[in-house]
Specification:
The chain has about 190 residues and is an alpha/beta fold. The chain contains five helices and seven strands. It has a single domain, classed as Rossmann fold. It has a seven-stranded mixed β-sheet with strand order 1-3-4-2-5-6-7, with helices on both faces. It starts with 5 loop residues before the first strand and ends with a helix.
């Protein structure tokens, strides 16, 4: 797949707006401010494909991008407390609608900040993916933000925090993990 051939397609804010899934989909999921937009931009070698913000919870829609015959879905981040009850319900309905609408999901890239243990929301999402039998890989973001000794400590704890899960350390700054993530995506797309 030529990752330089990506284009933004469309965004949807409610489950009712979601079109039928007609292409294989790669999905990016994670809490607010974990680096989903930065990861997407690095993966496709674009600066502004996905909007990056220092303000958590900026993405409130499912944003779709297309690269050749594959659709990439950027889900809104979860776990951002400064939302109204109505906004949280809309987000919840959007996520349920997305995952229950018989999508052709080939892989979910579940982002977790490598600097910290997975949050309760991260664990809930991972348990949901397991119970729904959705294939996923955990991208450990912000790996470049750890000093050498901090990283070694985190690398020792991660197998206990995420037992048996496939993980890829990722940095949108220095490109660590980009090739490994592309290879994992290609493997998921070729699996039938």
């Amino acid at each position: 797949m030529n990752y330089n051939n990506v284009t933004y397609e469309v965004s949807f804010g409610t489950a009712k707006q979601l079109p039928v899934s007609d292409l294989p989909e790669i999905v990016f999921s994670g809490r607010s401010n974990v680096g989903k937009s930065s990861l997407i931009n690095k993966l496709f070698n674009r600066k502004n494909l996905a909007r990056v913000s220092s303000v958590p919870g900026k993405t409130t829609t499912i944003n779709f991008f297309r690269c050749e015959n594959v659709r990439f879905a950027d889900l809104p981040g979860y776990g951002y407390a400064k939302r109204s009850g109505e906004e949280i319900r809309r987000w919840s309905n959007l996520m349920e609608g997305y995952f229950q609408s018989e999508r052709n999901i080939k892989l979910v890239v579940q982002l977790v900040d490598m600097r910290h243990p997975p949050t309760a929301d991260d664990r809930t999402m991972i348990e949901f993916l397991k119970s729904a039998d959705v294939p996923f890989v955990v991208a450990l973001t912000k790996s470049d933000k750890l000093k050498k000794t901090e990283r070694q400590k985190r690398e020792q704890l991660i197998p206990e925090e995420l037992p048996g899960l496939e993980t890829i350390a990722f940095s949108s700054e220095n490109g660590e993990g980009v090739d490994a993530l592309k290879a994992r995506i290609e493997k998921a797309l070729s699996a039938e």
